[in-house]
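Regression test attached.
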Amino acid sequence: MTDFNLELDARGLNCPLPILRAKKSINELESGQVLKVISTDPGSIKDFDSFCKQTGNTLLSSEDAGSEFTFLIKKH
Amino acid sequence: MAKRLKAAERKASILAVSKILFADKGFHGVSVDEIAQRLGVSPAVLYKHFDSKEALYEAVLDEISCKRESYVEAVVQQPMDFARVLEAMTRVYVESIAKDPDYLKMEMHSVLEGSAVTKQFFENRWRSFTDYIEFNMQELMPKEKVANINPKVASLMFQGMIREALYAKCIYHSDRYREIDLQTLVTTLTGLFLVAIGYQQHTNIS
């Protein structure tokens, strides 16, 4: 499992809150550092994919554990 | 005799016709026979794809939820300002509903029909707004950037306002608001909402 520098618990939050929280958390990171996000909103798989495409950050992994989703995002 | 279609095409056409009928008449107002008749096929063809009318209705809802509007662009392109993000999200939602008012009609029927599954589905759809408003108001209140108002009540106000505007413009086509286009109406209402909650302009939420 890849290391991460910051973890964001976005469980129970509906779109767009996980994205907004992630945007805020990424601002706290240095370039190349990794943010881990855990969410429960099923739409977040699509949302984080599109978030990374639009912001130039890299989606290192996107895991679907049924009711919980984990994303690792590397800051641009 | 109806043209023979591939299974996927048949399924898509069943969903499209069902959505129109459910929107016009509600879940209880439509029978499987009627859907089949409209499609020019026998009810057996429908049952080959869907076990029951309930399963068909759920599939229609599922399809709507797959096409769920994405707020990512609205959020990413805006500075993290409570009002601007809310305005951008509202624009996205309203555009999506205006393109497909059938969804709104299904929501209206579901309110009266009282099925738990559909009620939850439609409530979820509004949760993007109610959660967003509640969460941010809770953070802005201690900083005195919004008035001390119950965020749940405030988000209900917002939902009621926007939903009524959508009803007036997309369903009733009310003469009273004819000269105001939908986006102007919604932008003005959002502005009124921000005044009502005592929002201090351009408050950074990050």
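Expected vs. actual: identical. The radius of gyration of chain A is 11 Å.
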